[in-house]
Amino acid sequence: MSYDIFIKCSLFEGIESNEIRSMTKCLDPRIENFKKNDFIVLEGDKLTGIGIVLEGEITILKESYSGDGMVLRKLKECQVFGEVAVFAGKQKWPASVQATKNTTIAFLKAEKVKGDCPYLCPRHSQFIKNLLSLISRRAAFLNKKMDYLSIKSMRGKIAAFLWDEYISRETLSFELRLNRQEMADYLNVSRPSMSRELGRMKDEGVLDFHKSSFKILDETALRAMALS
Fold first, then answer.
1. Are residues 102 and 165 located together in one domain of the fold?
2. Average pLDDT of 24-28?
3. Which of 36, 95, 178, 216 could form a disulfide with 183 if both were Cys (CB 3.0 to 4.6 A apart)?
4. C-alpha span between 217 and 204 (Å, rounded)
């Protein structure tokens, strides 16, 4: 199999294509294919390393104490899962991973990811830095998600999310990185209910939107909603 797809992955940022190819000798990825709706791993399975989505799409699912499933994240090509658990020294997968399309995964063993490179790859340290940076961003992402989940009203969740996007982009018009379903999953609300609430906010002149493109029309009103 060609590993050229790794060139596009942030995990290999700053590493030349020829160096990536030589690194695969050290990392020794295990490639597996999964059909749509296949479970790639189940919560509680033995954790042996991290996974990289080479093709397709996956969903990270967590079962609540009541037995309900909750979507934590959806990952696409070049995105990584299992990295936080590996560096935290976990022995089991903390959540289930399911393919939502026909999917190809590259699995890297924990010791290959965390340990010293036996082949003295000059770029292995860059790979580790990239991975730690990814973990830091993931932690910030989850912390922000917890902030949204602590907001009781759906309107408050939506407003806080869009306000943060406005602050980080420093522009009233922006394209969300998440599609409508991913946004609903991230805020832990139903997509139909969220769409209705967005429609009401649009009718009230607070914002305008088309698909993933948003424009804030009334900053004061949106800020007030976020704080309510």
1. no
2. 81
3. 178
4. 10
Q: Is the whole-model pTM more than 0.70?
A: yes
Domain encompassing residue 208? 151-227
Structure tokens that stand for 85 in this block? 């658990």
Residues 68 and 121 in one domain: yes
Q: In which band, very low, low, confident or very high, does the pLDDT at 7 lie, cut at 50, 70 and 90?
A: confident
Distance CA 22, CA 137 (A): 27
Q: How many domains does the chain have?
A: 2
